[in-house]
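pls ignore typos typing on phone
flavin-adenine dinucleotide + seq
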Amino acid sequence: MADASGFLKIKRKEAGNRPLNERICDHSEVEQVLNSEDRMLQASRCMDCGIPFCHWGCPVDNLIPEWNDLLYKGDWKAAYERLNATNNFPEFTGRICPAPCEHACVLNINQEPVTIRENEVAIVERAFTEGYIKPLPPLRRTGKKIAVIGSGPSGMAAADLLNKAGHSVTLFEKDEKAGGLLRFGIPDFKLSKAVIDRRLNLMIKEGVVIKTGVAVGKDISGKEILDQFDAVCITIGASKPRDLKADGRDLNGIHFAMDFLSLQNRVNSRQLTPAENPINAEGKKVLVIGGGDTGSDCVGTSIRQKASSVTQIEILPKPPLTRAENNPWPYWGKILKTSTSHEEGCERYWNLSTAKFSGTNNQVTGVEVEDVEWTNINGRYSMNILPGTRKTIDADIVLLAMGFIHPVIDGLLTELGLELDQRNNIKVNENYLTNCRKVFAAGDSVSGASLVVNAIASGRKVAKEIDKFLRKI
Ligand SMILES: Cc1cc2nc3c(=O)[nH]c(=O)nc-3n(C[C@H](O)[C@H](O)[C@H](O)COP(=O)(O)OP(=O)(O)OC[C@H]3O[C@@H](n4cnc5c(N)ncnc54)[C@H](O)[C@@H]3O)c2cc1C
Ligand code: SF4
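k done
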């Protein structure tokens, strides 16, 4: 176990971020890296706490105390092997996971938690640099063919494990490049796309066939896929955005967040030139509706596009700075989050409801908002609009970042006749099997919009179930 009294001697030290004035001039990753010596000292803060709640908090069950111990002792190779045992893509989670493990860290009861996420990315990056990570194609093929539809983190994790088990996997993706929201949702300043390409190239060398630009259910029918493959895994994400039905919604200049973010990611990868980008915030007043992570990504992207001002509004109340009494450790702390994008210059307001979009000449010029008040009656929250509080926030561009409601149902899901749950996500049983024979599903398309680490966890579980199924037929 790492130094049992390390946490008494060493303070939490984060790698920190690139200087603000530098980073807003480009789209490169914001977060820096710590030198190896400091990183090993940080690992030493992981005490022998007996019951590692961090492990409970991690959706992929990462063996956190074990790899922290190996990292502290300088055995980077063994640390990587323990990390790789539970997580296919620590280079993604180590960069962008919100780290529920750190919320659950025992040190977090009365001190600062161990830098678990940063330790994770340090271990995997060292493994790449040292050449510990090499293509490892399976020694034998089973002769079974699997179609994985959708190449986000859940599809990638399922494809990776099924290929390693010796099955022949084809990963279908409707977009021009694989990676799902890692590629076209999450901005480059949080996750460099070279990191995704590095992993996809490894998977290709190991034998996964990736077919991009193929929308299953349109370019090739679901029936053809069923005829050609022994099992099918649907991991198409939950990309239907929540809309805001208010007067003036049809005005020009109002966009879904994903349209805005994916265009900038395509500019970054030179699939588009900046001049070809139809949603450019340069010199404009941007209003982001929705106070979550997608909204925060819109803030950072607008700032990099040189918007004249950026405002973000949220209908819910401002979260507290510390845990509320009904939100104890080791649960996820529902506290105010200030992202690097917020630090870069953004006005934030809470308790605001959108009443109307206003505009002239068919172009949005502002949004009329009203204050709201939330009351908790027997654990149920209800919202009241406060009369006489209507005001206008000026805006040339409005970005709707209010989350996603369910997967796209028209097309593949309708063609296969897949049953949906009450929230219109794909319904699966405890084995990740849908109502359609040999068709499995995982990731956001089953859970609803979630996190990369949950998508990887779900992709790992569905792979196990598909492998069991294939071994029986
Ligand atoms: C802007 C934004 C920022 C985010 N930031 C974070 C973050 O910082 N940390 C975090 O943990 N999570 C973040 N998330 C959430 C995270 O990205 C998702 O939970 C995760 O990517 C879901 O993975 P998935 O594999 O289920 O689906 P997705 O990543 O959505 O991938 C689904 C893929 O299926 C493809 N597809 C759909 N239909 C078809 C079809 N018919 N044929 C072929 N292909 C198809 C899609 O094109 C897509 O590539 C963010 C989400 C967004 C939108
Ligand atoms: S994947 Fe996320 S929750 Fe798990 S150890 Fe890494 S940062 Fe923590």
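The first helix runs from residue 6 to 9. Residues 179 and 196 are 7 Å apart (CA to CA). more later
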